[in-house]
Structure to design on (125 residues):
C-alpha cells in the first residue's frame, strides 16, 4: 500500500510511539535499518518516544492506521483490513479498509467506512 499510494501522491507517515526500554522502541539508526530490511515506502518515519503524537490520535495498537485528508481532517481510523491475522496468506481474503478509504478520498468521496476497530500488539507508551 505504501508504495502504490505514495506513487499517487499520498504522504505516508509512519509513527513509532514506543517508549525507551519498551518493545518497538528504536533509535534513529535502528529505524533506518528496519526501513531498509522491510523495504518500506513511507514518506517519512517519525520517532515519537514520548508518545505525544500517538496519544493525540488515540493509537492503541501496532498498526493503527489514520488517514488525514489534505485539509487536515481525519477521515479514517482503524485496522488495515478485516482479517486480524499476521499470516500473509490471509491478505487475499481480507477487505482492505485503508485501500478503500484512500481510493474514495482520491475520488473526492468521503470514506464509506470511516472507523473500524484496530488490531495488533498494544502500543508500548
Amino acid at each position: 500500500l505504501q508504495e502504490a499510494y505514495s506513487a499517487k501522491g499520498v504522504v505516508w507517515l509512519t509513527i513509532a510511539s514506543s517508549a525507551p526500554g519498551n518493545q518497538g522502541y528504536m533509535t534513529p539508526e535502528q529505524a533506518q535499518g528496519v526501513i531498509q530490511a522491510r523495504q518500506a515506502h513511507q514518506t517519512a518515519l517519525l520517532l515519537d518516544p514520548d508518545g505525544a503524537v500517538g496519544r493525540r490520535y488515540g493509537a492503541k495498537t501496532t498498526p493503527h492506521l489514520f488517514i488525514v485528508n489534505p485539509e487536515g481532517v481525519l477521515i479514517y481510523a482503524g485496522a488495515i483490513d478485516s482479517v486480524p491475522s499476521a499470516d500473509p496468506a490471509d491478505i487475499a481474503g481480507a477487505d482492505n479498509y485503508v485501500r478503500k478509504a484512500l481510493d474514495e478520498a482520491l475520488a473526492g468521496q468521503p470514506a464509506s467506512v470511516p472507523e473500524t476497530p484496530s488490531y495488533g500488539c498494544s502500543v508500548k507508551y
Observations:
- The chain has four helices and six strands.
- The CA atoms of residues 46 and 73 lie 20 Å apart.
- The first strand starts at residue 13 and ends at 16.
- The beta strands are 13-16, 44-47, 61-62, 65-68, 74-78, 121-122.
